[in-house]
Specification:
alpha+beta, globular, single chain, 32% helix, four-stranded antiparallel β-sheet, 465 residues, Aminopeptidase, binds ligand BES, 2 domains, Alpha-Beta Plaits, binds manganese (II) ion
């Protein structure tokens, strides 16, 4: 282990420089204008895998962006760890709110990251975190200390719903066979309180359209006489929560798995500081479902949020008009055992049923994903816990996250393999937002912690026989 850690220490600077090269390419999977860049990133990552000594590296084409595969099988008696990550990133908009251009990485110190953080789209989600695994492998391989067989699967469509990954997984069951999947695409509680993510929320995402009159109308001549689609849409949306901030869609909570009071008590031990949370967001108070703490609202409870709303006149000055149409994008975060398709259907049925006469409502479902919970008594969890304890000198706490990684439930279903979510980002790292960044402390801590995972996992695996 010492050889590995000293290899990391000696090559730290180069690791960062290599990450910077990857961050420079705008691999935005949602926007077809960046197709070439996404493909270029795939190639860069594949070359990175070859360079560190992985075998069978392949850029596997799909109907969409390619999935990169590579492996190193050293001994069939050793366990196999499958690493998953993504090389695509979210769009950088609104670009004007970035202090530095999103694809020209810069390192700056912040209050939370006194040792510096790298600012770029994808720095934390997920290029920086995915790259830690490639460098951890390099360090293990160059130190002749591979404790497990390893497989890499890095995709380029995570931010747009991983639509082609399920097909790839189904067609490559044998190739992807492994004992555990290891993913760094989540966060830790804070840099001095390490945590392991044990739950992710699912997602239903819908787009709604409310259509009123067949054309935009003069708001004086017609105002008061016909349904205004924006007024109606706003009314409909606000009726989706009641005064206690419970979601009003009939059946929405039916399948929600309630958490025992004991587990809630256990969860509430995490040292969440409401005051600094409020201050960091510059808000007067938190807001959410009655009867639950902020930590609970953001993890074990389902939500419904408008992500975008538009229609009518939004240009300079005033234009008096009743628009013909209004639109919104709405996400619902789901918890075990809610099913995204069921929920989209419940939403659609209810939303169309509450539309008054005088408008037509259309609901189009987008990609979704199932929630996931991972056990804490597996050898994978134990190995991760021991690895964190080594590098942070503190036992990590299990934490459920509010975010979604739909492939975790899919891997379990299709491959029957559990995933360990060993993330190193902070919630304040602004993923999906302007000025996304990733702490250098976190980047290096990740590279140091991963080899310990392999070492402990291999030991615990052996002790099972
Ligand atoms: N890495 C994130 C998810 C995440 C971040 C989980 C932090 C836990 C903590 C992932 O890239 C992501 O953004 N997922 C999307 C869903 C996806 C279907 C587009 C999300 O959660 O909005
Ligand atoms: Mn991600
Ligand atoms: Mn993301």
């Amino acid at each position: 282990m010492e050889r590995i850690q000293s290899y990391i220490e000696k090559n730290k600077k180069r690791f960062l420089e290599e990450l910077i090269e990857i961050l420079k390419i705008p691999s935005i999977s949602a926007d077809p204008n960046f197709e070439k860049d996404v493909l270029k990133t795939a190639e860069l990552v594949a070359n990175g895998l070859i360079k560190v000594g992985l075998d069978n590296v392949e850029i596997c084409s799909t109907e969409g962006y390619p999935i990169i595969y590579g492996d190193k099988i050293i001994d069939s008696n050793l366990p196999t760890v499958l690493i998953y990550g993504h090389y695509d990133v979210q769009p950088a908009d609104p670009i004007e709110l970035w202090d530095n251009p999103p694809f020209e990485p810069v390192i700056k110190n912040t209050e939370i990251h006194p040792d510096g953080a790298i600012f770029a789209r994808g720095a934390c989600d997920d290029k920086g975190q995915m790259f830690m695994h490639i460098k951890a492998f390099e360090a293990m391989n160059k130190s002749d200390s591979l404790f497990c067989n390893i497989k890499f699967m890095i995709e380029g469509e995570e931010e747009v719903g991983s639509e082609n990954l399920a097909t790839f997984v189904k067609e490559n069951r044998k190739r992807l066979n492994a004992d555990v999947i290891l993913v760094s695409d989540t966060g830790i509680f804070s840099n001095d309180i390490p945590s392991i993510t044990t739950g992710l929320r699912g997602l239903s995402y819908v787009e709604v359209e409310v259509e009123g009159p067949n054309r935009d109308l003069h708001s004086g001549l017609y105002g008061g006489c016909v349904a205004n689609p924006i007024n109606i849409l706003s009314k409909m949306i606000s009726s989706l929560h009641d005064k206690n901030n419970k979601i009003t869609i009939p059946g929405f909570y039916d399948k929600v798995l309630l958490i025992s009071e004991d587990e809630r008590k256990e969860m509430s031990k995490a040292p969440f500081k409401k005051q600094s949370y409020i201050e960091s967001l510059n808000i007067e108070d938190v807001y959410g479902e009655l009867g639950y703490s902020t930590m609970e609202r953001g993890s074990i409870r389902p939500t419904l949020d408008v992500n975008g709303i538009w229609g009518g006149y939004i240009g300079e000055g005033a234009k008096t008009v009743i628009p013909s149409k209004a639109f919104a994008k709405i996400s619902m975060r789901l918890v075990p055992n809610q099913d995204p398709e069921d929920i989209s259907k419940l939403f659609s049925d209810y939303f169309t049923s509450i539309a008054p006469k005088g408008v037509n409502v259309k609901v189009t479902p987008h990609h979704g994903g199932k929630p996931a919970v991972t056990p804490i008594d597996s050898i994978g969890y134990k190995a991760a816990s021991m690895a964190f304890e080594k590098t942070f000198n503190k036992k990590p706490i299990p934490i459920r996250s509010g975010g979604s990684i739909p492939i975790v439930a899919m891997f379990e279903e299709e491959l029957g393999i559990n995933t360990i979510l060993m993330g190193f980002g902070l919630d304040s790292d602004a993923i999906h937002s302007p000025n996304e960044h990733y702490g250098l402390f976190n980047f290096y801590k990740g590279i140091e912690t991963i080899p310990y995972f392999f070492s402990f996992y291999s030991k615990l695996f052996k002790s099972l026989d």
